Amino acid sequence: MSETSEVPLTGSGTSDRGAVRLPTTARAVLVVLLLYLFLTGVSLLGDGFKGLGRDFVDGLFEGVSNPVGGLFVGLLATVLVQSSSVSTSVIVGLVASGVVGIDDAVPMVMGANLGTTVTNTLASLGHLRRDHEFRRAFAAATIHDFFNILAVLVFLPIELLTGYLSRSAGWITDMVIDSSGASFKSPLKTAVKMPAGWVKSWLSDLGASGDLKGALMIVTGLAFIFLALAYITKNMRLLVANRVELAINRALQAGSGFVAIMIGMVITVSVQSSSITTSVLVPLAASGVLTLPNIYPVTLGANVGTTITAMLASLATGSPAAVTVAVVHTLFNISGIMLFYPISALRNLPIRLAVALADVAAERRSAALLYTIGVFVILPLAGVMVLR
To answer: Quick check: is 311 in a domain?
Structure first.
C-alpha cells in the first residue's frame, strides 16, 4: 500500500483534482477520530429521545409495535439513508433510550438488513443498455435481495412464535456482560461521556430545554452519525482499496465457500460498508469475470460483517438491551447462512430466483425499474402508512 492516499472532495469519480493527500498513518488516525464522533452521536441520540416527552415519542413511533410495520420502517429508513449501518445504529439508540423495546426492534433490524441491498441493485441498473452485461449484473445484485427476503420470511415468523433470536441474543448478552441492571459499565460509554456532555451544556447555554433540547440533541446525534460513517467508509475504502478485489479473487481461487464468506466479512468490517463489498461484485459479474455461485458466499460474509457497526454503537450506550439488539442483527445473518448455505437445494434457491428475475428484466427493462421501486419504495411506504 502506498504511503499516501487521496480523498476526492467533490463527486464520486476517481479524478485526483481537488484531492487531499494524507499519509496512511494520518488517515488511520482520522478513522479513529471519526469513529469517536460516531459513538458520541449514538450517545446523544439516545439521550435526546430520553429528553422528549412520552406522548411525543409514542406518536412518533406509533405502528412500530406491529412487527410488519417495524419491518417496513427499518426497510424504508435504510433505503432513504442508503446505509444499514446508520439505521441500525439509530435503532440501537432508540432501544438504549427505552423508546423501542427489544421485541419491536427485531423486525426493524430485519428491515434494515433487507434495505441495504438496494445500493447494489441500483448499481446494476448502470448496465441497463447492454443486454448481456445487464442480465449478469442484475442477477448478481438481486441474489443479495432474495437471500435477505428469504431469511426474513423464515426467521420473522420463527421469532414471533418462539423468540429465538431475541432469547438467544439475550443469553449471549448475559454471558458476556452483567445485564441484570438497566446499564453496564462500558468503557466506550465512558469515553464519549465528555464530548456528549459538552454538546448538552452548549445547548443549555443557548437556552434550549425540555422537548426542544431533546430534539436538538437528536438532530446533532444524527448529524454526527451520518458525517462520521460517511467519512469512515470513504477513508477505509482508500486504505484498503488496493486489497479488496485481490482478496476477493484469492478467496474465489481457493474454491472454498467458507473462505469466501470470511473474506466478505473481513472486507466489510474493514470498509464499514456491505454496500461497497457487494457493489464491487456487480461490475465483475457484468463483465463475466465472476459467476453467481462465486459471488454468493462473499455477499453472505458482507451481511455478517456489516453488523459490527451496530455492535460498537450498542457498547457506547451502556445498555444491555441495546447490546442484545445488536447481537440479534448478527445472529439473524449467521442463522440465515447456516440454514440456506450448507444444503444444496436451499443454497441454490436465491441464485435461481435472481436468474429468473434477471431474465425477465433483460427482456423487459421496465421490470427492473418496477421491481426496484416497488420492493424498496412503494411496498414499505404503503406498509408504513397502512399500519400506522
So the answer is: yes
